[in-house]
Amino acid sequence: MLPKLIRTSTIPISLNVLLKGQLRFLNKTFQVIGVSGNGKDLLDVKSREGIQTEVVEMKRNISPFHDIVSLFKLYILFKKEKPIIVHSITPKAGLLSMLAAKAAGVPVRMHTFTGLIFPTQTGILKQILIKTDQLLCWAATHVYPEGNGVKNDLLAYAITSKPLKVLANGNVNGVDLDYYTISQVSNEQKTSIKESLQIEPDDFVFVFVGRLVADKGINELIAAFKRLDELVNKNNNSATCDKTLKIDFKNSEKIKPGSVKLLLVGAFEHELDPLQKDTLLEINTNKNIISVGFQSDVRSYLALSDVFVFPSYREGFPNVVLQAGAMELPCIVTNINGSNEIIEDQFNGFIIEAKNQKVLFEIMSDIINNQSQLQPMKFNARKQIEEKFEQSIVWKALLAEYNNVLTFQF
Question: Which domain holds residue 159?
């Protein structure tokens, strides 16, 4: 009988999306059990990955009563299944799984930090989050930051004295390069989607993929694009230069009014992290901003675009930047964990300061003005992913780590 490996996450979409394919791969060596809250995503995991799944509801926010109930249910499950390894991702599942696994006597207790919340918080909430992560690490036997940026933050805040190891080159799952490739999207598909979105064949398209929330830098992105859109239209009404911002369109005759678009692919979260009212108004009224909502398959939208923009405030190791790179898109990212480990400035994209709409506007304007610089970046974008983040690299590194830990443990 194969040894049991339990993988946990707070919500099922994390198992379904973040670990897609990985659980099936690991199930060849272990009897893998996926644990999370209930939902269609968990059913998809069970069907696609071919693994056993168990439901334990966990609240993402601080909820003492529910957390105690979830902790007890995880303890009962671990005592029943007797896994050799429990490996968690996401904050709440990490805390509860590590505590329950320690109490249940699970010998190997691993947690991967896919991102940290506390560095961007203040006051008492920040202190609470730091203490909970310290408690998590106390209960774990092995701690893995998803990237070097996360590792540096864990060290800077003295979250744990245990060794911190980044597997492979970072990221929890890598990129399926057979799936994320422009050859998977035909010209007919791109043309059809462009027509449906009223994007002209020669339009220049910036694209964002992710949750449409303040934390992802959407307020700054919309403000920057609004200024760019106004400048493009002004440029075509005889003004070829914005002297205040020193933006001079060299090929002004080629830049037609409305020929620069911003494509937003993702859902709003009006309750958890709402956007500013003027941001929402601009999204709803500017015909050159196209919002298509959440899409389970983003490849067509990436394929029809020219540049990926990701002005997030904080990340662990953003999968969407990896996916955009695999689709040969130069990326504008902020200088934050993960993003600055994937993108090299001026090589496969641009790195800018977070929360700075002026800098974002200037780099977007410069790209429109100097589009020839993008061609080598497109090649470099794909090459970077192939060499450092291809899925098999990550999976093999994780399996090797499991085997090494078990060898030393027993």
Answer: 4-174+390-409
Which residue is it, tokens 């999968």?
A: 319
Cβ-count burial 218-230 (b if 16+ within 10 Å, e if not):
bbbbbbbbbbbbe
Q: How far apart are CA 273 and CA 275, in angstroms?
A: 7
Count of domains in the chain?
A: 2
Helix (H) / strand (E) containing 209: strand 204-209
pLDDT digits (tens, 9 = 90+) for 218-271: 999 999 999 999 999 876 554 444 544 445 555 555 678 789 999 999 999 888
Residues 53 and 105 in one domain: yes
346 and 263 in a single domain? The answer is yes
How large is the angle between the packed helices 91-103 and 64-81, nearest 10 degrees?
Answer: 50
Pairing of strands 307-310, 331-334: parallel
CATH number, residue 334: 3.40.50.2000
Q: What does pTM read for this prediction?
A: 0.88
Q: Is the dihedral of CA 295, 382, 179, 21 positive or negative?
A: negative
- Enumerate the H helices of 86-186 as residue ranges: 91-103, 123-139, 148-156
Residues 381 and 396 grouped into a single domain:
no
